[in-house]
Amino acid sequence: MMHGFIPPARYYAYKTWQEIRDLPDKANVPLILPIGSIEQHGPHLPVAVDSALTLGVIGEALARLPNDNPALCLPPLYYGKSVEHDGFPGTITLTANTLTTLLMEIGEQAYVSGFRKLVLVNGHGGQPEILRIAARDLHVKYRDYHCWHLFIWDVPNKINDLLSPKEAAIGIHAGDAETSLMMKLLPDTVHMDRAEASWPAERRADQLTYFIGRLTKAWTTQDISHNGVVGDPTPATLTKGEQILDQLASGWVRVFEEIHRWPSHEQHAR
Predict the structure, then answer these.
(1) What is the value of pTM for the model shown?
(2) Domain with 46 in it: what CATH number?
(3) What is the pLDDT of residues 184-227, one digit of tens each?
(4) How far is CA 228 from the centre of its chain?
(5) Residue 267 falls within a domain, yes or no?
């Protein structure tokens, strides 16, 4: 079915136009747009990882959300801006301009339908800047439109406690955490017999700039990985995947509750 991991009652596309028109207190309904990507994730994971993890986590959070929170989930954007993975077969990327236009036009149509709280939930590390720009521009265009740009992994959690120090620091793609979570959500797509680690060159003690951190340079995955993995997926387990899903879903329940309570008419600074 179309809704996938999302509870059917929370799936926007299953509503009739009259049901959407007649939603009570529509200005305070959190309207969630998951944004993923279709990109290579090494030899052991499918290209759908970022989209699948985003929908799996959001779906679990919405299933736990109290019934008095009317949050709805829009059909997801499965494609994103994944140009850094160009060169690995399977990656299908949008341009920054295309993704920005999609977010703006979807956001504008949601506003026209009467919604005033739009939550952009991103699952791909290569596009947060685009979501930030779109959310800000929507708010500037419609000053009573509250728009969030959020990353699926950024809610309160203790996931790093489950990982090795090196993995927690620089295991950013197709490593232990993503592989463990995929074991929980889509186990038939995980091929642990093909899993292998790949790490970028070590950062020197006196080195200021690096491919991650506050001072970064532009990079592609081919610059830092021979197989599309940045990290070590071999320690991944289903048990860790269950713990990661539980922690992330609990964090997102807190976020969606806060957004529901957020005043629809804020006091503006003077």
Answers:
(1) 0.96
(2) 3.40.50.10310
(3) 999 999 999 999 999 999 899 899 999 988 999 999 999 999 99
(4) 19
(5) no
